[in-house]
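Assemble and predict.
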Amino acid sequence: MSRTGVFVCHCGSNIAGALDVERVAEAAGKLPGVRYAATYKYMCSEQGQQLVRDAIAEHGLDRIVIASCSPRMHENTFRKLLKDTPVNPYMLEIANIREQCAWVHTDREQATEKAIDLVRMAVAKVSKNKPLHSSFIPVHKKALVIGAGIAGIQAALDIADAGYEVTLLEKESSIGGHMVMLDKTFPTLDCSACISTPKMSEVAAHPNVTLMTGSTVESVGGYVGNFDVTIRQKAKYVNHDLCTGCGLCETKCPAKVTSEFNQQLCTRTAIFRPFPQAVPAKPVIDPDSCRKLSGKARCGVCQAVCPLGAIDFEDKDKLITDTYGAIVVATGYELVDWAPLYPEYGGGKYPDVITGLQYERLVNASGPTEGKILRPSDKSVPKEIVIVKCVGSRDKKKGRAYCSRACCMYSAKHAHQILDKIPDACVTVFYMDVRTPGKNYEEFYDRAREDGARYVRGRVAKIFRENGKLICRGEDTLLGRSVEVPADMVILETAMTPAPEIRELCARLSISTDEYGWVQEAHPKLRPVETQTAGVYLAGTCQGPKDIPDTVAQAGAAAAKVCILFSKNEIEGSPMISAVDENKCCGCSACVRVCPYRAVTLEEIDSREINGTVKRHVARVNAGLCQGCGACAAACRTGAIDLLGFTNAQILKEVDALCL
Amino acid sequence: MLRYAYYPGCSMDTTGVTYRMSIEYLARKIGLELMEIPDWNCCGASSAHAKGKWQALALPARNLAIAEKRLPGLDICVPCAACYARLLAATAAIRESDETRARIEEITGVTVKAGAEILTLMDVLGTDEGFAACAAAVERKLTGLKVACYYGCLTSRPRAITGVQNIESPELMEKIVSLSGVECVDWDFKTECCGGSHQVDAPAAARPLVERIFRNAKANGAQAIVTACPMCHLNLDMREEEINRKMGTAYDIPVYQFTQLLAVAMGASAKEVGLQKHFYPAFKRLDRTLRKAGTLQ
C-alpha cells in the first residue's frame, strides 16, 4: 500500500478565496493510500516546503501530491525539494486547483467539488508512479555556428572568448554577411564596414575559432552535447595555404559576371574576392562563370599568372565530419525578390528603380560609384528621389503580412544621406506608418524630416515613365487625394525574407519554421534564443526581421546559452522519456514515423521464442534525442511504448478515479 | 482550323462598327470562320453586375448555352473586352459550383455546361495558326508608325479568372500588331482603366482617366494608340478632341483598333475599315505612313 501525503495550498486568497481548502484536505485524507493531508497558506514558501519534509519524516510518506498552481509553475520547486528526502522526485504529482479550478469558477461549492476530483485523480495517478532516475549525457565542448554575418560572428566570438572551441560556417566565400554591404548604420551613422571588419578579422584570427567559408551543413545526427555534423566545403580551386592574396589573378581573369556583393550594379571576375576587405582575403573561383571550369574555353590565365602556383583546377568538394555539443543557427535573411511581386512598379524593367541594398552599395565609398549617388541608367546625379517603404511587407496580397522592422529606420537614413550628399535634392518618402521604437530612433527620424525629407502617408500604386521621369502615383491618405510625384530614381525599401535554404537546414536540425520560413523559437517571450531541439540556439534575422543592435544582443544571448551548456561536463537528461517493452513491440515502425525528433529507430534483436532464437526488429529510443512528447506512445498499436511519468497505467488510474 | 463560335456583342453595329468592318475584312483574308451565336442577347456588360449577381451571370450564360447547343465543340471568340469579361466570369462561376449552375439554369430555362473556352480576338490571332495566317496575308507594311498598344482593364483582370500573369504589361497585342509593320512603344498604361461607361454618365470625373492614357502614350513616343475593344476605342477616340478643348492639351493621337491596322496591312482601303467614321481624324496618319513606307512588294 502506498503512503501518500497530500498538501493543499491556499495560495493566499488565490485558491482559498474561491474554494474550501480545508474540505479538500479533509476529503483527501479519506482517499485510499493517503496517510497525511494538510493545508498551508503558501506551499511553495520555505515554511511550506518544510511542512512536506517534516511530514515525510514523521509519517514515512513515499509519494506526494501537491494541490496548488499549474505544474509549469512549481513542479520543479517540489522536485528539487524531494531530492534531499527519501522520496524520489518523480513520486510527485501536482493537482492544478488554481488555474484550472479556483481562477475559472465562481461557485464556491462546485469549485470545491471539482478540486476534490482533481486531487482524487492525482492521488490515483501517483499510486502508479515509479521512481525515475535521470540519465547523464556527456557534453562535447565545441560549438558550431552556422552563418557568419554579424550574428554568427558575435556569437562565435563570445563563445570563443569564454574559452570554448567554435567552428564558424559561412556559405559564401567571405564572412561578413549583409552588414558589411551597408554604408552607414542608423541612428549613429557609424561606417558599417569600419565597425564590422574589425570583428571579421578578430574572429578569423581567434585561436579558438575555426573558420570554414564556402561551407554548408550536409547532415546532422546525434543530440544535445553530441551532434555529429557533416560539413560540405565547396571546392575553392585556390590553395589558400599557398595564396598570399596578391590579387594578380583577379586583374587578368577575362570572365565577367554581375557582382552579387555589389547587388548587380557592377561586374566581378570569375576568380574573385567579393570585396576588398573580404575575410579570408584570398580569392576563390566561381566554377559557373569560370571559362575553364565551365568548359567554355581553355583559358587558365589565372594559373599562368599566379606567382605561387596556388591555382588548383582539380580541387574537389570536401566532406568533413565533427562532433559538436551545441549549434547556433545564424543564417540571416535575404531581401524579397520584389520584381515578380510588383509589376505595377515596372517589375524590374526600369533600371532606376532600385532596392535599398543597391542604394547602400551606390552610396558606399568602396561601391561601384565610389560613394557618389549616381543613378544606374545614365550615371547622372538624381535630384528628385522617391523612397517607398513596406515593399513586400505588411501586405497579405504580396504574401507577407509581417513588418520588416528595420526599413523605417534605414529609409530615414537613406533620406538623410541623400539630402546630405546632394544639396538641392528633393526626397519624398511614401510610408504607411513610421515605427521608431529603438533608442534614439525617433530623434533620428525627426532629423531626417528636419533635413527636408517629405513624408507622404500612403502606398505607391504605380510607377510609370513619362518624358524621362519616373512618376510615382500614390495616395496621400492624410490629405485624402491621389498624388503623382516625379522622380529621377526610386528606392524600394524591400522586406527581409528568410533564406530559401533555411527550411532544408531546419529539417536537418529537427527545428521548425513559421509560415514564412523564419526559424521558430522555443517560446516567443521566455525562450527567445532556444529552439525545440535541446542544444540548438538562434541568433539574428533567421528568427525574424531585426536590426543590428537586436541581432548582436541576440547573438550574445545565444552564446551565453551555449556557455551555460558547456559549463557542465555532463547534462542531466529528463527521465520522463519513452520506454519500449521489447516483448510487446512488433516492429511495425509506427513510432519511428511519428517521432518529430528522430529519437526512435528500429533495431534487430535476438528473440527467444518457442521454436528457438529468432531475429526480429524492435523499437529503440535514444535517451538523448527523446523530448518526452509522447507521440510514439499514442501511435503504438500494441501498447509497447510507455511515456515514463505518463504511463498508460497512470493515466488509466486517473481516469478511473474520476469516472468510476 | 480557324473556326470559332462568335459573340459580337451589342456595340458592333453601332459605336464599334469600325471594329466589325475590320474584323470581317481580316477574317475573309485569313480564312477565319466566325460562326455567330444565333439569337444572342446582350451580355450585361458594364451595367448588369451593378444591378445584381444573378442578372450579371444569367445574361452571358444564356449565350453560352446557345453556343453549346447550336455550335457544339467550338470555343467562343469575343472581340469586345467587356463582353469577354462577362462571358468569362459566367464560365468560371458555372464551372466552379454546381449550385450556381443549377440556379442559372433555373433562371435561363436552358441547360449550360460552360465547357467552351472564352477567347479574345487577340487570343485567336495569337495562336500559332492564327498568327501564321495573319503573317501570310500581310501585303504592305506600316513601317515607321509608332503605336502604344492599349489593352484596357478587362482583358487581364481579375487575375483569378483570367489567369493572366503579367497584368500590368501584357505583350500579346504587340506581337500581333507588329505584323502590320508598326513599331510598338514601351509604355506604362497598357491596362489602366479608361473610365468605362462613366464616360457617359460622369464625363467630367472620367475625363482625367482618358487624359492620362494619352499623356503617357505621348510621353513614351507613341503617334497612335491601338485598342482591342469597342468601348476603349470609343472612349479614347470620342473624348480626345474634348480633352484638348477642356483640359488645354494638344494631343494628336489617332486611335485605331488593332484589327484596322492588320486589315490595312492586308490591303484594305480606308473605307473598308471605316477610317472616315472615327471621331478623331484617323486617315491622314495612316495615309502618310503608307506613302512613306510603300508597299511590301
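The longest strand of chain A covers residues 600-609.
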